[in-house]
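**Polypeptide and fold**
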Amino acid sequence: MSLFTDKFTFFKVFIYFIFVFSGSLKWLPIPIDLTLLSLLFCAVVMIVELRTIIPIKVKDRLIVILILILSLIFLISNFYSISSIYAQSKTLAIILNIFTVIYPIIVFKKSIFSELKLLMYLIGGLMVIGLFYMYFNNMFIIFHDSELLVDKVPTYLVIGIMLCACFIFSLESKLTWYVAVYRLSILFLLFQLGGRGPIINVVLSLIVFFTLNLKNYKIDYKTGFAIGALFFTILIFGENIYTFAFQNVDFERFNIFKAYNDDASLSVRGNFLEIGIESILDHPFFGLGIGSSGFILDGTDVSNYPHNLFVESMMELGIFGGLLYLSTYILFFLRNYSISRNNKDMLILFIVVLLFYLEDNKSNSFDSWRCSIIWIMFFISEKRYKVGITN
């Protein structure tokens, strides 16, 4: 019976994950829309599990309420939005975001970290295998050449940030030779993909991780031996390692200050932020409504956004919308800092929330906010079973 329960728990986590990230799987040759199919499975599971609901912790309820209020205001802003085309698709995305919040509260009746960790290893393993196949067949060019870009295939930024999440989950495991190979493979592929955002964001997230987890690290002879071996390996084979791993990496792109004037993507995003801030100053109280960011940035009703959720929320909903968005994360990080220091499972989830928050304010839009909400809800759901438990 317990084995079936574990399998069912994994299934609940799996379909939830597929529902949220189905947009990155549109390239799969599946005859039915994957978002719709996974949503159907999630709805059925919700109905089955609706008999009992385990309440979330009091401190986390306000976080959930803020997300739902912000989403509701987005929907209400349809009444005064200057957009109609983009507003329509964005309204659907906001409804899916709301569903992303509600599902785990109803469905998860026990700790799901083990199942989630297994799922992340499966995803990471498949991604590593697939990306190495592409790398050795010189196919990485499709991620950077607009003429070769395949429709519906996820961008190198989407792939990169998921690789970063898989790397962070691997930190929960003890360091063995196969875990080390797995981590090094992810890091190698991240640099080959060349995404500045994912690499910079994972570095910042790892700094926070090791800082919060510092008390659990002990320096013994094994650690000293490993550090020494690594040092001499780099000293002796450093040039060979660099030639193999980094000869195709354009490190100039990672110098943001130097690349700003030369890199078209940075210039465009900088321009978007300037236009967005001007719009906020012109319409500070209510913004211009859901989907208006495309109209503001391009002068026509198309799907576009400033690549920063804080700015986007103020452009479309005014300063109050921006404060709601910012308050959600301030509350989350402040209220969950303590438990994350004392429980490594919670720390892993905490850092992944931070990783996606950083990425949201560099590359994403509220269209895909559920890709961040899912990690907040994983954390809040897991916290119901981890308070007071230290590992």
